[in-house]
Structures are given as C-alpha cells and as structure tokens.
Automatic annotation (TrEMBL):
GO molecular function, one term: ribose-5-phosphate isomerase activity
Protein name: Ribose-5-phosphate isomerase
Keyword Lipid biosynthesis belongs to the record: no
Pathway: Carbohydrate degradation; pentose phosphate pathway; D-ribose 5-phosphate from D-ribulose 5-phosphate (non-oxidative stage): step 1/1
InterPro entries on file: NagB/RpiA_transferase-like, Ribose5P_isomerase_type_A
GO cellular component: cytoplasm
One Pfam family named in its UniProt record: Rib_5-P_isom_A
Family statement drawn from the similarity comment of this UniProt entry: Belongs to the ribose 5-phosphate isomerase family.
Region (Disordered): 65-90
Key words of the record: Isomerase
Native source organism of the sequence: Ganoderma sinense ZZ0214-1
C-alpha cells in the first residue's frame, strides 16, 4: 500500500492519509514540514503505481467554485437562462376547462402584493404556474413559492421561480390547489395524487385557499363523481389494522392503493401508504363528522377530506365560462379568460 501525506492549508495539525485503493481518512498528529522534493517524488510515485490519482479537491482545499454574490450559481440547466417550459396547448375540452379555471383564479387571487404563494398538485396546477409566470419577472422576483409535493416543486424550479419551504414561511398569502371533487359547501376530496398531507398543511397555512378544477369535479355530495373513495395516508406498519377499522365504520371496500408501474403499494412523498376508502352517500353527506371519525383512528397520518377551508372554487365549463362557488354560498358564472379560450 502506498500512502501519501499532503499538507492541508486550513488544517495545519492534521495529515490526510490517502490510500490509493480509494479509502481516505484523517489521522491526528503534529504537523511537520515536508520538503517540496518529497512531495514531488510522492506524487510521481502515485502516478506510476496508482490507477486512482488523488482528487484535485484534496490537493487544493482552498479552491472554491465560481460564485456570483453570496450563493453559488445554480447547476440545473433549467435555471441558467433558458426560457421557462411552455405548457402544451389544451387539445381537449377538459384540458381547456382546466386552464380556464386556473387562469381565472390566478387573475383574481394572485395579486402583486402577495409574496408567499402555495402551489398545489394535480393536472390543473401546471396552468396555475403558467399564468403566474405570465405575470412577469418583475412581479415574481420578490415572491417565494411553496410546493405541496414533487410535481409542484419541479414546476416551480423549471419555471425559474424562487422555491421556498413551509418551514421558512409558515404563513402563506394564497394557496391555489386542484381537487378531485368539491361539494356545494366547498368541502372537497383531495389525495388522488397522494399529496394530501402536504396539501392540507399549505391550505391551513394560507390566508386564502382557492380550488381550481374542471366541470367534472363540481358536485353536490362528495363521492358522486369521485367514487374511488377518500384517500387516507397511513403509517405502513399499521395499515392492516386501519383497514379493519375502516371496514367496521362503514367502508367495507376500503383497500390499500397499489402502484401501477411498481410492484407493491403506492408510497407517498412522506414514506407512507395510501388507503382509498369509499363510503355510502348517507355518510358522505356529512364529511366533517366522517373526517373527525377517521382521524381518531390510531395510525392515520392525514385524511383527504378538506372541510371548511376553501374561500372559493373555480370550475372551467365546456362552454368557455367559469363557475365560481364561494364559501358564503354564492355561485357566480363569469366569462372565461379570452386568451385561455383562443389558444
């Protein structure tokens, strides 16, 4: 074994012991001066006998990466001057309805004074981010965007918006999110994409929580248009017992959500399992009571029922209009954004 001792400028009382087979460790000792000839001969010996040279970073500990200002420049190509990715133009009535809802909601609720914005998950959210980007760099330069999961994080980063975290910003001005189904009281089912824990955290943290969806999600009683059941995030080791309890309280068909392109169950961004629990209509008519009952079960992390949280819900319609349901019971129908229809 050949061992080279290299002086580290910033750690004068330690020697770096580097094994040519790849193992490197710090060895305590009193620093001794080495002649340059010794260093040169050692380096030459390494070149002759080793197939794995000492990494340059170890030889030059004072070398720093180029930086502009206090922080290094971002390495991702999407952040180095390229234009934000363009969301594909809708090619179906449903996609056009999603964009109508998203653009109208952003125009009404994401205002210049809003600086901390929560970005939800789902198929409607790319249109939300697209409309925010269209507000311009000058408006967005002082904003921070908080994601609810991997999808929204990638949308924020690729759109060159400033990414933040709810740990840093526990108070959010506005959160805009999609929904799987919304009833007449703005209670909704969320979690079809498995992000409802983080979505609920951002919904509760927001001064204003807005839902956006297409006309298919507009319902009177939850469970009508989304029959898969209520998404429930659970700790993995307790899922069998939780399934048994859900069967006993009125959901005999509750089941563990299985992955489509992976063997085994779906795993959330938080490392948990997801259970889908359909309940009969008479139980779903009182979603808040059901939410409370499910949450009392041990092992439940979060339930995909969002009750008494949204200020408004925007639904894009087939005819190019947008239906707006408000938390106080008002229902408004407005013409959709013209550019959203024309594109």
């Amino acid at each position: 074994m050949l061992v080279a001792h290299v002086r580290l400028n910033r750690i004068p009382h330690w020697h770096l012991r580097y094994d040519v087979r790849g193992a490197s460790t710090f060895v305590a000792g009193v620093h001794k001066h080495h002649r340059s000839t010794t260093t040169h001969s050692t380096t030459a010996a390494l070149r002759k006998t080793s197939t794995m040279p000492i990494p340059p970073a170890l030889l030059t500990p004072d070398l720093l990466a180029p930086a502009d200002g206090a922080y290094p420049q971002p390495r991702r190509g999407t952040l180095t001057g390229q234009s934000p990715p363009k969301v594909p133009t809708p090619t179906s009535v449903v996609e056009a309805a999603k964009r109508l809802a998203a653009w109208t909601a952003v125009d009404r609720h994401i205002l210049p004074e809003h600086k901390v914005i929560g970005i939800g998950s789902g198929s409607t959210v790319p249109y939300v981010v697209e409309r925010i980007v269209a507000q311009g760099k000058e408006v967005n330069k002082d904003r921070v965007f908080i994601p609810t999961g991997f999808q929204s994080k990638e949308l924020i980063v690729k759109s060159q918006l400033l990414l933040g975290d709810v740990d840093q910003y526990p108070e959010i001005d506005v959160t805009i999110d999609g929904a799987d189904e919304v009833d007449h009281d703005l209670n909704c089912i969320k979690g079809g994409g498995g992000c409802h824990l983080r979505e609920k955290v951002l919904a509760e943290a927001a001064d204003t929580f807005i839902l956006v969806a297409d006309y298919r999600k507009n319902s009177t009683v939850l469970g009508t248009t989304f029959p898969q059941g209520i998404p429930i995030e659970v700790v993995p080791f307790a899922y069998t017992k939780i399934l048994q309890n859900l069967h006993l309280i009125g959901s005999p068909n509750a089941s563990l959500r299985m992955a489509k392109s992976k063997a085994g169950p779906v795993v959330s961004d938080n490392g948990n399992f997801i259970i889908d629990a359909p309940f009969p209509e008479e139980i779903m008519k009182d979603p808040y009571t059901l939410l409370t009952r499910i949450k009392m079960l041990t092992g439940i992390v979060e339930v995909g029922l969002f009750c008494h949280m949204a200020k408004a819900a925007y639904f894009g319609n087939q005819d190019g209009s947008v239906t707006i349901k408000w938390h106080d019971g008002r229902i408004e129908k407005v013409a959709g954004n013209e550019s959203a229809v024309e594109d």
